[in-house]
Protein backbone atom coordinates (compact mmCIF):
# COMPACT_ATOMS: atom_id res chain seq x y z
CA UNK A 1 0.00 0.00 0.00
CA UNK A 2 1.38 3.40 -0.96
CA UNK A 3 2.04 6.11 1.58
CA UNK A 4 -0.62 8.23 -0.14
CA UNK A 5 -3.22 5.50 0.38
CA UNK A 6 -2.14 5.05 4.01
CA UNK A 7 -2.48 8.81 4.57
CA UNK A 8 -5.97 8.75 3.02
CA UNK A 9 -7.17 5.94 5.24
CA UNK A 10 -5.71 7.51 8.39
CA UNK A 11 -7.16 10.90 7.41
CA UNK A 12 -10.69 9.54 7.11
CA UNK A 13 -10.43 7.29 10.15
CA UNK A 14 -9.62 10.39 12.19
CA UNK A 15 -11.69 13.02 10.41
CA UNK A 16 -15.09 11.31 10.12
CA UNK A 17 -15.43 10.45 13.83
CA UNK A 18 -14.22 13.95 14.71
CA UNK A 19 -16.87 15.46 12.41
CA UNK A 20 -19.64 13.25 13.87
CA UNK A 21 -18.55 14.15 17.41
CA UNK A 22 -18.64 17.87 16.58
CA UNK A 23 -22.14 17.56 15.09
CA UNK A 24 -23.35 15.67 18.18
CA UNK A 25 -21.89 18.29 20.55
CA UNK A 26 -23.39 21.12 18.52
CA UNK A 27 -26.85 19.52 18.58
CA UNK A 28 -26.60 18.83 22.30
CA UNK A 29 -25.38 22.37 23.06
CA UNK A 30 -28.31 23.95 21.23
CA UNK A 31 -30.75 21.35 22.56
CA UNK A 32 -31.68 20.19 19.06
CA UNK A 33 -33.07 16.85 18.03
CA UNK A 34 -30.77 14.88 15.76
CA UNK A 35 -32.40 13.71 12.53
CA UNK A 36 -30.56 10.69 11.18
CA UNK A 37 -31.39 11.49 7.54
CA UNK A 38 -30.11 15.06 7.83
CA UNK A 39 -26.94 13.92 9.59
CA UNK A 40 -26.28 11.28 6.92
CA UNK A 41 -26.67 13.89 4.17
CA UNK A 42 -24.39 16.36 5.97
CA UNK A 43 -21.82 13.63 6.69
CA UNK A 44 -21.95 12.59 3.03
CA UNK A 45 -21.40 16.20 1.95
CA UNK A 46 -18.49 16.51 4.38
CA UNK A 47 -16.87 13.26 3.21
CA UNK A 48 -17.45 14.10 -0.45
CA UNK A 49 -15.89 17.57 -0.07
CA UNK A 50 -12.83 16.11 1.64
CA UNK A 51 -12.42 13.42 -1.03
CA UNK A 52 -12.81 16.11 -3.70
CA UNK A 53 -10.10 18.25 -2.13
CA UNK A 54 -7.87 15.21 -1.72
CA UNK A 55 -8.27 14.24 -5.39
CA UNK A 56 -7.82 17.73 -6.79
CA UNK A 57 -5.29 19.44 -4.54
CA UNK A 58 -2.92 16.73 -3.32
CA UNK A 59 -0.34 15.07 -5.58
CA UNK A 60 -1.51 11.89 -7.28
CA UNK A 61 -0.96 9.79 -10.38
CA UNK A 62 -2.78 12.39 -12.52
CA UNK A 63 -0.26 15.10 -11.66
CA UNK A 64 1.49 16.51 -14.71
CA UNK A 65 5.25 16.41 -15.21
CA UNK A 66 6.88 19.62 -13.93
CA UNK A 67 7.51 20.97 -17.45
CA UNK A 68 3.83 20.52 -18.44
CA UNK A 69 2.27 22.59 -15.66
CA UNK A 70 0.33 25.49 -17.13
CA UNK A 71 -2.23 28.15 -16.37
CA UNK A 72 -5.13 28.71 -18.78
CA UNK A 73 -7.10 31.91 -18.27
CA UNK A 74 -8.80 31.84 -21.72
CA UNK A 75 -12.35 30.52 -21.35
CA UNK A 76 -13.19 27.54 -23.59
CA UNK A 77 -9.60 27.16 -24.86
CA UNK A 78 -8.85 23.79 -23.25
CA UNK A 79 -12.39 22.56 -24.00
CA UNK A 80 -11.77 23.34 -27.67
CA UNK A 81 -8.36 21.61 -27.50
CA UNK A 82 -9.94 18.53 -25.94
CA UNK A 83 -12.64 18.35 -28.60
CA UNK A 84 -9.94 18.74 -31.24
CA UNK A 85 -7.99 15.87 -29.63
CA UNK A 86 -11.16 13.75 -29.62
CA UNK A 87 -11.55 14.18 -33.38
CA UNK A 88 -7.92 13.15 -33.81
CA UNK A 89 -8.24 9.85 -31.97
CA UNK A 90 -7.81 10.65 -28.27
CA UNK A 91 -11.25 9.95 -26.74
CA UNK A 92 -9.79 8.96 -23.34
CA UNK A 93 -8.27 12.41 -22.90
CA UNK A 94 -11.63 14.02 -23.60
CA UNK A 95 -13.47 11.74 -21.18
CA UNK A 96 -10.93 12.24 -18.42
CA UNK A 97 -10.81 16.01 -18.74
CA UNK A 98 -14.25 17.15 -19.86
CA UNK A 99 -16.58 14.48 -18.46
CA UNK A 100 -14.37 13.99 -15.41
CA UNK A 101 -14.56 17.67 -14.45
CA UNK A 102 -18.33 17.68 -14.87
CA UNK A 103 -18.98 14.36 -13.09
CA UNK A 104 -16.66 15.24 -10.21
CA UNK A 105 -18.99 18.07 -9.13
CA UNK A 106 -22.42 16.48 -9.74
CA UNK A 107 -22.52 15.10 -6.17
CA UNK A 108 -21.81 18.58 -4.79
CA UNK A 109 -24.94 20.02 -6.40
CA UNK A 110 -26.96 17.02 -5.25
CA UNK A 111 -25.72 17.14 -1.65
CA UNK A 112 -25.87 20.94 -1.29
CA UNK A 113 -29.40 21.09 -2.61
CA UNK A 114 -30.46 18.17 -0.41
CA UNK A 115 -28.65 19.27 2.75
CA UNK A 116 -29.93 22.82 2.66
CA UNK A 117 -33.49 22.44 1.41
CA UNK A 118 -34.26 26.13 1.68
CA UNK A 119 -31.27 26.95 -0.52
CA UNK A 120 -32.15 28.05 -4.03
CA UNK A 121 -30.41 26.19 -6.83
CA UNK A 122 -28.55 29.37 -7.82
CA UNK A 123 -26.80 29.46 -4.44
CA UNK A 124 -25.85 25.79 -4.74
CA UNK A 125 -24.35 26.47 -8.18
CA UNK A 126 -22.55 29.52 -6.77
CA UNK A 127 -21.17 27.25 -4.04
CA UNK A 128 -19.83 24.89 -6.72
CA UNK A 129 -18.31 27.81 -8.59
CA UNK A 130 -16.60 29.13 -5.44
CA UNK A 131 -15.28 25.71 -4.39
CA UNK A 132 -13.95 25.07 -7.89
CA UNK A 133 -12.28 28.50 -7.94
CA UNK A 134 -10.66 27.80 -4.57
CA UNK A 135 -9.39 24.43 -5.84
CA UNK A 136 -7.90 26.00 -8.98
CA UNK A 137 -6.24 28.74 -6.91
CA UNK A 138 -4.79 26.14 -4.51
CA UNK A 139 -3.52 24.10 -7.46
CA UNK A 140 -1.85 27.19 -8.88
CA UNK A 141 -0.33 28.27 -5.54
CA UNK A 142 0.94 24.78 -4.70
CA UNK A 143 2.32 24.32 -8.22
CA UNK A 144 4.15 27.65 -7.99
CA UNK A 145 5.70 26.58 -4.70
CA UNK A 146 6.70 23.16 -6.06
CA UNK A 147 4.47 21.18 -3.68
CA UNK A 148 2.42 19.65 -6.51
CA UNK A 149 2.51 19.73 -10.28
CA UNK A 150 -1.00 20.58 -11.41
CA UNK A 151 -2.25 22.88 -14.14
CA UNK A 152 -4.83 25.54 -13.35
CA UNK A 153 -7.57 26.06 -15.91
CA UNK A 154 -10.53 28.44 -16.11
CA UNK A 155 -12.36 25.76 -18.11
CA UNK A 156 -12.19 23.43 -15.11
CA UNK A 157 -14.15 26.05 -13.17
CA UNK A 158 -16.75 26.25 -15.96
CA UNK A 159 -17.07 22.45 -16.20
CA UNK A 160 -17.19 22.00 -12.41
CA UNK A 161 -19.92 24.65 -12.16
CA UNK A 162 -21.87 22.85 -14.89
CA UNK A 163 -21.48 19.63 -12.89
CA UNK A 164 -22.87 21.33 -9.78
CA UNK A 165 -25.88 22.58 -11.77
CA UNK A 166 -26.47 19.07 -13.12
CA UNK A 167 -26.33 17.75 -9.55
CA UNK A 168 -29.09 20.20 -8.59
CA UNK A 169 -31.19 18.99 -11.53
CA UNK A 170 -30.60 15.34 -10.57
CA UNK A 171 -31.74 16.12 -7.01
CA UNK A 172 -34.89 17.89 -8.25
CA UNK A 173 -35.76 14.86 -10.41
CA UNK A 174 -35.04 12.53 -7.48
CA UNK A 175 -37.22 14.58 -5.12
CA UNK A 176 -40.15 14.74 -7.55
CA UNK A 177 -40.04 11.00 -8.17
CA UNK A 178 -39.77 10.31 -4.46
CA UNK A 179 -42.81 12.53 -3.74
CA UNK A 180 -44.72 10.78 -6.52
CA UNK A 181 -44.26 7.38 -4.86
CA UNK A 182 -45.03 8.53 -1.30
UniProtKB/TrEMBL annotation:
Q: Does the keyword DNA-binding apply?
A: no
The record's listing under Pfam families reads:
VanZ
Where in the numbering of this chain does the VanZ-like domain appear? 46-174
Keywords for this protein: Membrane, Transmembrane, Transmembrane helix
Q: Which InterPro entries match?
A: Teicoplanin_resist-assoc (IPR053150), VanZ-like (IPR006976)
Q: Where are the transmembrane segments?
A: 6-22, 34-57, 93-113, 125-142, 157-174
Q: What is this protein called?
A: VanZ-like domain-containing protein
